[in-house]
């Protein structure tokens, strides 16, 4: 199973653009989902007992296999089956389903005494949320962010079955031609992307939450 | 809705290669793979959780499993080993392993230490502690591990059609080749339904298991205590 370096050299441009496409398709939905999930998570947290019901429903959404989602979305969105928009929207839905849970779990993990102290020294509900509760909830949110980003990067490839899939196309090429090199290249680059994305999020977490450095969040 | 006509067309369901057969095949892949995964992962998870050794293996494995694109892994194995029911099940079982292993190890290791100390003080052997204390307390987590493994396998068995044929993924593949969106949609709806139904089913089992593991947390009746 030797790698055919000449094939790699000849297709370097294509491999590069597939990698870039892969990264964008996986990461953009996470960013969009994060923006939506923080306020949504706060609202769900505020619903009290109903929160668990909402989280269970999100769990069901999360359980839908990605391929089914890629195929069903064009019907709802009016897009073409080959459109990368389907993939981005599907991944955004999964990301929201998981991140809302992370936000709720994070807000729940804030000790009551801390919240009461903040109120006692004069924080209003909004200031308390933004300056006390959210920062303390962030380690849990970051943990969810890492899970979602890494699994998104793996999931983009699945879309090759419906004719998209960025780096996943290399699996198709290799499979049709009984040729290992593209498959290995696809696997290695996907894992590399996941590793880099995970490291970047970890660095962001260290940079923005220096006080959480010694706390284990996984 | 014309898109849904394929799904509700009785003639498509019957016979060889019909929707009914594909559904059963998908279910067979899933059940076989999760069972094999469980037979390997549960004893290993108990060992790791009980001895407290090999935790790094569990963490590494579960992280790697999340990052590996299942379709790439599948295509590679099919090219190396060829296709067939047994081989596909084996690949799916490998993908089911990490979730079950992580959950079992976490469940056993997370058993209430007071209960474990008490059991030891009563003179139980290591094996007895596992069987009578740690395992019953770990069951809810093990069930949740089986749940995520099942979802992973249902999803990946769909992808398996791409490389090995069979299962509900077949509807997506043939639908895509013949530009029959109705057929693809039929596949998608059935796959999603299968996943959600299995998820709710195992979730229900998990609730029952949790109630058995901690009868007093839900019901404070004497019957609950007696059963524990």
Uncertain residue ranges of chain B:
217-228
Average predicted confidence as pLDDT of chain A: 90
| Class based on secondary structure composition and strand pairing of chain A | mainly alpha
Average predicted local confidence, pLDDT of chain B: 85
Description:
The complex is a heterodimer of chains A (218) and B (228). In chain A, 42% of the residues are buried. Chain A has nine helices and no strands. The two termini of chain A are 37 Å apart. Chain A is mostly helical and 218 residues long. With 228 residues, chain B is mainly α. Chain B has one domain (18-219): MetI-like (MetI-like fold, Orthogonal Bundle). Chain B contains eleven helices and no strands. Chain B has helices spanning 10-13, 19-51, 55-67, 70-81, 85-109, 113-121, 126-163, 169-177, 181-213, 215-218, 222-227. In chain B, helix 3 (55-67) crosses helix 5. The longest helix of chain B has 38 residues, at 126-163. Chain B is elongated and about 70 Å long. The termini of chain B are far apart. Mean pLDDT of chain B is 85; it is low at 217-228. The chains are: A mainly alpha (218), B mainly alpha (228).
Provide the fold topology.
The complex is a heterodimer of chains A (218) and B (228).
Chain A: H1 5-10, H2 12-46, H3 50-63, H4 66-77, H5 84-108, H6 112-120, H7 125-156, H8 168-177, H9 180-208
Helix pairs in contact in A: 2-5, 2-7, 3-5, 4-5, 5-7, 6-7, 7-9, 8-9
Chain B: H1 10-13, H2 19-51, H3 55-67, H4 70-81, H5 85-109, H6 113-121, H7 126-163, H8 169-177, H9 181-213, H10 215-218, H11 222-227
Helix pairs in contact in B: 2-5, 2-7, 3-5, 4-5, 4-7, 5-7, 6-7, 7-9, 8-9
């Amino acid at each position: 199973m030797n790698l055919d370096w000449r094939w790699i050299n000849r297709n370097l441009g294509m491999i590069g653009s597939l990698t870039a496409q892969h990264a964008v398709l996986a990461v953009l939905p996470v960013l969009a989902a994060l923006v939506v999930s923080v306020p949504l998570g706060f609202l769900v947290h505020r619903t009290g007992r109903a929160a668990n019901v909402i989280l269970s429903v999100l769990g069901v959404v999360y359980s839908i296999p990605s391929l089914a989602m890629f195929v069903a979305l064009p019907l709802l969105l009016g897009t073409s089956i080959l459109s990368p928009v389907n993939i981005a929207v599907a991944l955004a839905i999964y990301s929201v389903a998981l991140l809302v849970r992370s936000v709720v779990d994070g807000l729940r993990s804030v000790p009551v005494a801390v919240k009461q102290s903040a109120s006692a020294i004069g924080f209003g509900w909004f200031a308390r949320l933004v300056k006390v509760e959210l920062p303390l909830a962030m380690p849990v949110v970051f943990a969810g962010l890492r899970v979602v980003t890494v699994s998104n990067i793996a999931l983009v490839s699945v879309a090759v079955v419906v004719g998209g899939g960025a780096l996943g196309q290399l699996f198709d090429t290799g499979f049709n031609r009984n040729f290992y090199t593209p498959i290995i290249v696809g696997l290695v680059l996907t894992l590399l992307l996941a590793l880099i994305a995970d490291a970047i999020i970890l660095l962001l977490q260290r940079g923005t939450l220096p006080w959480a450095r010694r706390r284990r969040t996984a | 809705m014309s898109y849904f006509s394929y799904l509700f067309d009785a003639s498509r369901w019957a016979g060889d290669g019909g929707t009914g057969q594909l559904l059963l095949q998908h279910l067979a892949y899933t059940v076989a793979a999760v069972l094999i995964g469980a037979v390997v992962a549960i004893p290993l998870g108990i060992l790791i959780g009980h001895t407290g050794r090999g935790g790094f293996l569990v963490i590494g494995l579960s992280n790697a499993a999340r990052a590996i694109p299942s379709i790439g892994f599948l295509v590679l194995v099919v090219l190396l080993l060829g296709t067939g029911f047994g081989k596909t099940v084996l690949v799916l079982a490998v993908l089911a392993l990490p979730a079950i292993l992580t959950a079992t190890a976490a469940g056993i290791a997370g058993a209430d230490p007071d209960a474990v100390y008490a059991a030891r003080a009563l003179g139980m052997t290591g094996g007895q502690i596992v069987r009578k204390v740690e395992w019953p307390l770990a069951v809810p987590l093990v069930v949740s591990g089986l749940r995520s493994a099942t979802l992973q396998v249902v999803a990946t068995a769909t992808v398996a059609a791409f490389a090995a044929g069979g299962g509900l993924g077949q509807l997506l593949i043939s639908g895509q080749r013949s530009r029959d969106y109705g057929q693809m949609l039929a596949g998608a709806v059935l796959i999603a339904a299968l996943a959600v139904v299995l998820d709710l089913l195992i979730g229900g089992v998990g609730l029952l298991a949790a109630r058995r593991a901690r009868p007093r947390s839900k019901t404070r009746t004497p019957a609950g205590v007696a059963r524990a």
